[in-house]
Amino acid sequence: MKLPALHIGTLHARLPVIQGGMGIGISLSGLASAVANAGGIGIISGVQIGFREPDFRENPIKANLRAIASEIKKARELSPRGIIGMNFMSIDDHYEEYVSQAVANGIDLIISGAGLPLSLPRLVQGSKTHIAPIVSSVRACRLILTSWWKKHHRLPDAVVVEGPMAGGHLGFKLEDLYAGTYQRLEDIVTEVCSYVQTFAQAHNVRIPVIAAGGISCHEDVCRMMQLGAAGVQVGTAFVTTEECDASDAFKQAYCHATADDVRIIKSPTGFAARAVNTPFCQQAYDHGGIPVTHCFRCMPNICSPARSPYCLSQALMDAANGADCGGLVFCGARVGEIHTISTVPEVLNRLCLAEASTCCNANRT
Fold first, then answer.
1. Which end of the chain, N or C, is less packed with Cβ atoms under 10 Å?
2. Bridge partners for 6 per DSSP
3. Pairing mode of beta strands 159-162, 6-8
4. Minimal CA–CA distance to 217: which of 22, 35, 362, 34?
5. How far apart are the C-alpha atoms of 300 and 293, rounded to whole Å?
6. In this structure, are residues 242 and 323 in contact, taking their beta carbons and an 8 Å threshold?
7. pTM passes above 0.90
8. In sequence order, what DSSP letters do the residues of 92-153 get, joined into one string?
9. Are residues 34 and 243 in contact, defined by beta-carbon separation less than 8 angstroms?
10. How far apart are CA 297 and CA 305, in angstroms?
11. pLDDT tens digits for range 232-291
């Protein structure tokens, strides 16, 4: 199947692939620019993006704001003609400041989930920045779209549908993920496409739906597009590329992981999440937790140091920095299919070219 280009508002990507935003520090300007240069849409994760700034521990907000600007600038220099976006968690206590900083620095696209990004249209008002919410059900999609139109008279430029096989934080109940009683991505995509098409037609616009979670090969992409999706979002497959911003230790954790090494956890945010069952993960969830020695106050209304089994920010920073894989390594459900380091062009070929993808369960090189 020859895949069409992806059109999101005035943005036109040659390949219908968005690289998922992965934080902390996994998808920064290096990975995002490489994907953009290869014809996809590159996404910088805005989650604690300033973690390598010298003053981050003392003033994480200023460090994050500075890093948002610098990472966008680096990505533009590396990919002057590519499409660069950012991903922000709407539950972050400084969400509006961070989104506004990205908009002020000319970001092309903002993708936002981990909660309901109801204020996002107001934050991009008067700019050229495109916006796309992440949803995991048609109910959430309906709530966001109707709220955006009623309060801001704004429609999304795209909708990302994230299914239960995705990595990191998930929009599904913990008990459903344990029991396998969740909706399949295929079913959610079908329902959301139907609703979005009706909603878009009523407003005489086109709103592409992007499928995400468990997308690994060309056959997966074709299946999603046959259901009505205009493109896909992929995260896990891009981690084990030379261009990814993560440490080599983080990448090797992916390469060595098997299907049995993947576990569902309850994040300190309260959301269910998927991660590699590293020694850190075992200590955090099976052996009494890891004391929080410093709070970065990223989500003070959600995450309490006194009640949390560990500091989420510190755990993700340690993993990104390669602390003997001692941190929290988020991953997608199909990480066990990855065994070697590849490149961004190779991943995109596997996703977009039939001849480069013979079997979804084959070893990847």
1. C
2. 13
3. unpaired
4. 362
5. 15
6. no
7. yes
8. STTHHHHHHHHHHTT-SEEEEESS--TTHHHHTTTSS-EEEEEESSHHHHHHHHHHHHHHH-
9. yes
10. 9
11. 999 999 999 999 999 999 999 999 999 999 999 999 988 999 999 999 999 999 999 888
